[in-house]
């Protein structure tokens, strides 16, 4: 919410936007899946921002039951917001089967363009702008395979590791750096070497999140001290 930054648009971002908007046109949800730190949640949030909608992110876990998820669905349906459920495949398989029937109820109401419908024993209003999205990290420990009844309600999209150098270069240009191309190459090589050669402990993060925060801080330093010289191409 508010006046904050936007995502760098890459061919991958375009493809995700296209898939998610096509899913919405068919009254389906979107299901970006891929490794951690590839921008699944951020891309969904940025698309919601572009459309002027609120996107509520919920981190899912083994402790979530169908009643808790049902309350979130009820709120989304009534206010027309988007819901992004992170790590959706961590929810227990028995709970997922009930959740699929809840989503199907909402989808039927959207298809028939109803303004009110029965949900979990209550009659609630329905805003047609609502959307349900799930993100998944397949292959990680503690993840369950989604039942077919859930898969049928979501349009899958595979998210791969983005081109870090391109993102780095565009962010540096937007922060006001003139030697962005050279600096982007240096930064991505530095983080690649750090990822490969430094400690593999899980609390060290040399991915896109860490790189982005460094670039934003570099932009603040540049604006605060404009007299400082940027690194030249042969430096």
From TrEMBL:
Recorded superkingdom: Eukaryota
Database matches in InterPro entries: AAA_6, DHC, Dynein_AAA1S, P-loop_NTPase
GO biological process, one term: microtubule-based movement
Span of domain Dynein heavy chain hydrolytic ATP-binding dynein motor region: 1-230
Gene Ontology MF term list: ATP binding; dynein intermediate chain binding; dynein light intermediate chain binding
A GO CC term assigned to this protein in UniProt: dynein complex
Similarity comment text for this entry: Belongs to the dynein heavy chain family.
Name of the protein in question: Dynein heavy chain hydrolytic ATP-binding dynein motor region domain-containing protein
């Amino acid at each position: 919410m508010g006046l904050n930054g936007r995502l760098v648009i890459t061919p991958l971002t375009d493809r995700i936007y296209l898939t998610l908007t096509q899913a919405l046109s068919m009254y389906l949800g979107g299901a970006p899946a891929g490794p951690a730190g590839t921008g699944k949640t951020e891309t969904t949030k940025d698309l919601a921002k572009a459309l002027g909608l609120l996107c509520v992110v919920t981190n899912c876990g083994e402790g979530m039951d169908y009643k808790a998820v049902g309350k979130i669905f009820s709120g989304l349906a009534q206010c027309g917001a988007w819901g992004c459920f992170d790590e959706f495949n961590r929810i227990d398989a028995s709970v997922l089967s009930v959740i699929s029937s809840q989503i199907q109820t909402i989808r039927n109401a959207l298809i028939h363009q109803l303004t009110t419908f029965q949900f979990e024993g209550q009659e609630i209003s329905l805003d047609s702008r609502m959307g349900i999205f799930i993100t998944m990290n397949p292959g990680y420990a503690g993840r369950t395979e989604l039942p077919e009844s859930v898969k049928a309600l979501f349009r899958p999209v595979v998210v791969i590791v983005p081109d870090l150098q391109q993102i780095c270069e565009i962010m540096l240009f937007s922060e006001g750096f003139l030697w962005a191309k050279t600096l982007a190459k240096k930064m991505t090589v530095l983080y690649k070497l750090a990822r490969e050669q430094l400690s593999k402990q899980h609390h060290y993060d040399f991915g896109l999140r860490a790189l982005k925060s460094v670039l934003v801080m570099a932009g603040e330093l540049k604006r605060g001290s404009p007299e400082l010289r940027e690194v030249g191409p042969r430096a």
